[in-house]
């Protein structure tokens, strides 16, 4: 509110919002006294300045909502904790317990009919190994169906600088979307605090709302912690410049991963960005084939149930 008093703000529910961590009860146990309504009601109050009145009901029901911050753009914030395999309540009911995926389908249908572009926010990346595979596949199926409407998926949770290409569940050679995973402002996993700015085509009546570039800023804590110094954020890189991309389409990101499979210099650069290292780390030098397979497979697993893109990229590694 202080820094961006006139800027639309869209929040997403993370796995640390609840107590205990990761524990989001399903509706079948609400009557037994395990009800997260205290959390959703609190968020509805805290986010009241930014959540439209007609979206409050879904926020109170399951921590997800929709907003239209600009004409032609619909932003959908979903609660990825209902795919989180560390949310043990899902053992009781894991099939869309709060009807969130059905609601998402309805929102995408409305956006398509209205000619709107859609950005999706979710804290937990849908391709993360912690995201339950059945949920992830259904989500990927929805994104595939509405691939011409969904112009970007934005995530966090990893604390690392990454992305994930999402493929059509029925055609693993067809990239349909990109999940952008921003680095964090915290130092968890021993990296320097970072944040990211996205360039989006939002100008004029023909705006596509597609991501055209992103820029990552980092502060070097070694320097910041020296006597008399304070943190100073500097631009680390532009995605298009760093990876030589003509655009940031799903196909282009898939080609970047293919390039890293055969180009060690390109792969090492990604690893430095991933961990926000300022110098060549020893971790890169010790990244053997198994390490490289694991790193590259993550980048093409936008659907945790779809292992075929991973197998394809592993076969290209030299």
TrEMBL record:
Organism field: Hirondellea gigas
Family statement drawn from the similarity comment of this UniProt entry: Belongs to the acid sphingomyelinase family.
One GO MF term: acid sphingomyelin phosphodiesterase activity
Record's protein name: Sphingomyelin phosphodiesterase-like
PANTHER family: SPHINGOMYELIN PHOSPHODIESTERASE
Sphingomyelin phosphodiesterase C-terminal domain segment(s): 178-310
GO CC terms of this entry: extracellular space; lysosome; membrane
Gene3D superfamilies: 3.60.21.10
Pfam families assigned: ASMase_C, Metallophos
Major place of residence: secreted
Entry keywords, A to Z: Glycoprotein, Hydrolase, Metal-binding, Secreted, Signal, Zinc
Subcellular location: Secreted
Cofactor: Zn(2+)
Any one GO biological process: sphingomyelin catabolic process
Every Calcineurin-like phosphoesterase domain range: 7-159
